[in-house]
Amino acid sequence: MKNSEAIDALAALAQATRLDTFRLLVKHEPEGISVGELARRVGVPQNTMSAHLAILARAGLIEGERQSRTILYRAKISMFQELTLFMIQDCCGGRADLCEPLIAHLQPCCPPKGKPKL
Q1: Max Cα separation, the chain?
Q2: pLDDT tens readout for residues 63-117
Q3: CB contact at 8 A, 77 and 31
Q4: Structural domain spans, the chain
Q5: C-alpha Rg value of the chain to the nearest Å
Q6: How far apart are the C-alpha atoms of 102 and 92, rounded to whole Å?
Q7: CATH tag, 1-110
Q8: How many C-beta neighbours within 10 Å does residue 91 have?
Q9: Which of 43, 67, 71, 76 has an alpha carbon 20 to 30 Å from 90's alpha carbon atom?
């Protein structure tokens, strides 16, 4: 990931409505949510939500897919993963003792099939 891409993504998330919207979309993967439902859940007018969604989409964090008369929005989990890895790639200068608490908090919330949750 380039610095400019990370800056665009972080700038898009540096606003309360957009951050709330992105987090809501992540929670509703992979089915997605319509713009009207997003606006209702976040508590903003639909046209305001559309503007926020456009900013998130330009930053590469979300995508919309038309289904009949509705556009469903989804978080681009691959971009989120790339951004997260970009931010922690050189975590703690290679000192494992400083990274251990971070790694412990990153344990998956949804273990792979066949494995019990830790």
Answers
A1: 52
A2: 999 988 889 999 999 999 999 888 877 777 777 777 777 777 776 666 666 655 5
A3: no
A4: 1-110
A5: 16
A6: 10
A7: 1.10.10.10
A8: 14
A9: 76
